[in-house]
C-alpha cells in the first residue's frame, strides 16, 4: 500500500514538474566555465541555460582564431588535469586519437584504473573530432642558448651557466636551505627560499616581472604557492635523473608536479574546437547561446539577482533579461561596477583596486626558423618545442609558441612555420596602442635580433589583443575575501571560472567551479565555499580531506 501511494505521489510530482514553467539560468560568457555550466544544466536538470557572450567566438581565452587557414591559440592550451572528472568530460566530447601499434592501452588513472582505448581511437588524418596526445617540450631561451624548462640541474645546464655562476647558485641555494626564514611575505621571498637568490635572479625574476609588469616583491607569495607548488631543487634534480630512465606515460600524471607534466591532450584544431563542440551540444540539449551580446548591468532585490541588462554590440539595443539563476564568468570588477543597487563602498573599493594584466599575441608565418637543433632532429628540421620562454632582457616578447608542434593541423602549409609571440602588458601601455602593422614589425624585429628568425622569411602576420587575461594577486587582492562575502550573499549568483572568481585558474579548474555550482543548485546548497576551494591542486585537497 505504502509503495502504491509513493508511486502515485511520484506520478503527481512528475505531472506537476511538467506543468511548472521551466527555470532559466542566465550565463555570462561562453568560455570553458560558462559552457561547462550550460552543458551540465542541459544534461542534469530542467533548468534551461541562456548563454550571453560578448565576442563572436566560443571558448573565451581558450578559443582558436584563424588567419589565412592557420589556427592560432591564445597562449597554447594544454589539456591535462589531475581531476578524473575533467579528463573524462573532455574525452567524452572529443575521443583520444588512435595510438601507435603496441600502445593499445594507456594508463589514465595511475593508481586505480586504465583508460580503455585499445589504440582504437579516431585517426586524425581522416577525422576532425579527435584529441591528439602530445609530448611537452618547452625550454628557456637565455644567453642565446636553450635551457631545460623547468630548469633541470643537468650537466648541460651547468655547463651553459658557467663555473662561476654555478658556484654562486650552489652557495646561495645552500644558504637558503640552512637559513630558510619564516613564511614568505611576497613572491621574491618565496622564490629565494625555494631556489636561492642566484637561481632566482637568473631564471625567475626577469620573466616573472615581464609577465606581471611589477616587481616580484609586490606580488603575493600565494601566486608562487599556487603555480609552482611542490617544485623544488630537490624535485628538479630527482626528476632529471628519473627521466633518464623512465618517463611518466600516464596522461593525467597525477604524481607529477604540474610544471613537470610531459604529456598533454590537444584538440586537433586547437582548444576552440573543443568549445565549439560543447556549444553545439548545449544547443542540441535545448540551451541557447547568443554572441555579440555584452552584459553591462545586474539588478538585485538585495538578496537575489533578478535580471541583467544586455547590450547587442552590433545594434546598440539593450534588453532586460530575467532569470532564476545567474552564472558570471565576466571579470569581477565589471560585475561589481554593473550591480544595481551598488555594493557598500567598502566592497566596491576592493573591486576597483583589483588589477589585471593584458596580453597581445602576434602570429607570424615563416618559411623557416633560423635557430636549429645542434644535433639535428627528426621533426623536418624544426625544433620540437611547443613553447619557449624568452628570458633575454633585451626584447619585450615573453614567450614563443610553435603551433606546428601543438598540432600539425593548425598550419595550412606544413612546409611553413607558424609562431605565436606573447607580449604581457597593460591596456594603458604604448604597446597596447600600437597598430597591427607596428606590432608585427616589432615581433619580426625582436625575433631577428635574438637570432631565432630571419625577418625576411616572414610571410604574413596577425595580432590578437586580449584584455584581462591575468587576474593579478596584488592590488587589493589580499582583501578579496571581503568582496567575495558580499557577492556570495546573492543566493542565485554563482561566480565561476578565472576572471569570474579573480583566480589564476586553468581550464580544468574553471570547469570544476562551474560543475560544482550546478551541483549546488541541484542539491539546494546555498553555501558556496566548495567553489572557492577548487584550485590548482584539487587532488591534494581531496587527499587532505
Ligand atoms: C597565455 C595563457 C595560457 C594558458 N594556458 C592554459 C593551458 O595550457 N591549459 C589550460 O587548461 N588553461 C590555460 N590557460 C587558462 C585558460 O585560458 C582559462 O582558465 C580559461 O579560458 C578560463 O575560462 P573562463 O570561462 O573562466 O573564462 P574566459 O576564458 O575568460 O571566458 C570568459 C568569456 O566571457 C566573455 N565575457 C566577459 N565579459 C562579458 C560580458 N560582460 N558579457 C558577455 N560576455 C562576457 C568573454 O568574452 C569570454 O568569452 C591559459 C591562459 C592564458 C592567458
Structure description:
- The chain has 545 residues and is of the alpha/beta class.
- It folds into three domains: 204 residues, FAD/NAD(P)-binding domain (3-Layer(bba) Sandwich); 94 residues, no CATH class; 118 residues, Protoporphyrinogen oxidase, mitochondrial, domain 2 (Polyamine Oxidase, Chain A, domain 2), CATH 3.90.660.
- It has a seven-stranded mixed beta sheet with strand order 7-6-16-17-18-15-19.
- The longest helix has 18 residues.
- The site of flavin-adenine dinucleotide has 34 residues, from helix 2, strand 2, strand 10 and helix 16.
* Percentage of residues assigned to helices: 25-40%
The chain-level structural class is alpha/beta
Distance between the termini: 43 Å
Major sheet: arrangement of strands: 7-6-16-17-18-15-19
Q: What is the total domain count?
A: 3
Top keywords for this entry?
Polyamine Oxidase, Chain A, domain 2, disordered N terminus, binds flavin-adenine dinucleotide, alpha/beta, 7-stranded mixed sheet, 5-stranded parallel sheet, 3 domains, 545 residues, 35% helix, FAD/NAD(P)-binding domain
